[in-house]
């Protein structure tokens, strides 16, 4: 991950775990984007329907655009990852800070420019829970870490919100409020995680 930078990681092990999760995401996100693009008014994959609801072209466009931007940001953009041990963000998995104080500046083009100029105005903090979380579909840390990365990167590149937390709540949102689901970070996290575990199982 040559364009990213890392700060305040007190142990090599913690940084290696974070970089491993990034490499996993860089490996599997292109396949996840491909799966999302395969959806249409004629057919919707199970994962898509579970987390984004019935097919609608405008919503589908938002989903594909967001996932493509996540893929780009993970593999190419300049993000500074900061490990925090005390204070705000220490007792969570991760959190994303908006550069320049405005989410509307989050575009792949601007991220590429940031990486090129080594500005690294895009910051994600890493908390204690990233290394112990099991709030994933299959209750494993690796899946939870993949989920966390996709969740936080969706904030970074697509101005997603956090109207709900949790797998069950995300699915309910897709059924009852699909317009909100396609703008919810949890829905992206769990959608990506579901496909990640399926692709790993299939090899």
Sum up the structure in keywords.
8 helices; Lys_MEP; alpha/beta; Collagenase (Catalytic Domain); 4-stranded mixed beta sheet
Could you describe the 3D structure shown?
The protein is about 55% helix and about 10% strand. With about 200 residues, it is of the alpha/beta class. The chain has one domain (about 5-200): Collagenase (Catalytic Domain), CATH 3.40.390. The protein has a four-stranded mixed sheet. Helix 2 crosses helix 6 and helix 2 (about 45-50) packs antiparallel against helix 8 (about 185-200). The longest helix has 26 residues, at about 10-35. It is globular. Mean pLDDT is about 85; it is low at about 100-105.
Radius of gyration: 16 Å
- Helix coverage percent: 55-70%
Question: Given this structure, which CATH class is correct?
Answer: Alpha Beta
User: Into which percentage range does the β-strand content fall?
Assistant: 5-15%
The tally of strands reads 4
Which sheet architecture does the biggest sheet show? 4 strands, mixed
Uncertain segments are 100-106
Terminal CA distance: 23 Å
CATH architecture: 3-Layer(aba) Sandwich
Topology:
Blueprint: E1 5-7, H1 12-37, H2 46-52, H3 57-76, E2 79-83, E3 94-97, H4 108-117, E4 122-126, H5 141-158, H6 167-176, H7 178-181, H8 185-202
Parallel strand pairs: 1-2, 2-4
Antiparallel strand pairs: 3-4
Helix pairs in contact: 1-3, 1-5, 1-8, 2-6, 2-8, 3-4, 3-5, 5-8
Short description:
This protein has 203 residues and is of the alpha/beta class. It is 56% helix and 8% strand.
């Amino acid at each position: 991950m040559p364009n990213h930078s890392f700060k305040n990681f007190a142990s090599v092990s913690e940084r290696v775990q974070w970089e491993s999760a990034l490499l996993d995401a860089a490996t599997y996100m292109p396949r996840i984007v491909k799966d999302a693009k395969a959806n249409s008014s004629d057919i919707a994959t199970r994962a898509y329907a579970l987390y984004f609801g019935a097919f609608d072209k405008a919503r589908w466009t938002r989903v594909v655009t967001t996932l493509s931007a996540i893929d780009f940001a993970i593999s190419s953009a300049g993000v500074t990852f900061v490990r925090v041990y005390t204070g705000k963000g220490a007792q969570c998995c991760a959190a994303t800070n908006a550069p320049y104080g405005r989410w509307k500046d989050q575009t792949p083009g601007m991220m590429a420019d940031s990486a090129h100029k080594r500005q690294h105005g895009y910051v994600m903090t890493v908390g204690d829970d990233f290394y112990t979380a099991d709030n994933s579909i299959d209750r494993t840390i690796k899946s939870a870490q993949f989920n966390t990365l996709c969740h936080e990167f969706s904030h970074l590149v697509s101005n997603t919100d956090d109207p709900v937390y949790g797998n069950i709540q995300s699915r309910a949102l897709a059924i009852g409020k699909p317009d909100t689901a396609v703008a919810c970070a949890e829905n992206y996290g769990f959608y990506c995680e579901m496909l990640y575990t399926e692709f790993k199982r299939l090899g």
